[in-house]
Sequence to fold (199 residues):
Amino acid sequence: MKMNLSHFEAAFLFALFTSVVLGVVTRNTDRDRLHYGIYTFVCFMVALFGLGWLMYLGHG
Amino acid sequence: MTAKEKEQKRPLPPLATWAPAVVLGWLIPGGGHFLLKRPGRGILLLLAIASMFVCGLMMRGYMFQPQTGDLLTTLINTGGFVGDLCGGLLYLLTVAFGYGQVDTPGHVHDYGTKFLVTAGLLNLLAMVDAFEIAAGRKN
Fold:
């Protein structure tokens, strides 16, 4: 079985899995863990769209 | 003495208190947390890390082998191998059953390689977390 993903799908999955683990291992309370996981995921998404647009505009 | 210095001089707890959790955490992602009676966090770690590893395999990611040569080759291949190895049982089973792929060009394979290494590195973070819980440094 082979998985064929677009750049966006692969980066989305990467961000999702990484955010879950970073959220779980980084903070001390469940509430803080949830907040940090969401914060990390949002940072990944902002970087993904930001860099995507930067490359699109830079390409001309 | 500052709090930071006190933190640095805290002695390492006895091996028997943290080694089982760390070793189980290496073999099975989240296993250390299960052993330390943190099943909720253990399940999240298991699902996230195992899913990432399986996605990497399904994208036909490359499993690094340690290589020597110039500095960059050594760094990338040995670093990648250590990252893969941190996947524990997932890595060992993949190698044992011959699911490791050759390095192939293409963005999907490239993402797959990164997924495999990152899954191992995230498992390393989970092992450190299990160590800190077992050592009583974290809840």
Observations:
- The CA atoms of residues 14 and 135 of chain B lie 9 Å apart.
- The longest helix of chain B spans residues 107-134.
- Chain B touches chain A through 27 residues (CB under 8 Å).
- Helices of chain B lie at 3-8, 15-27, 31-35, 39-58, 71-85, 89-96, 107-134.
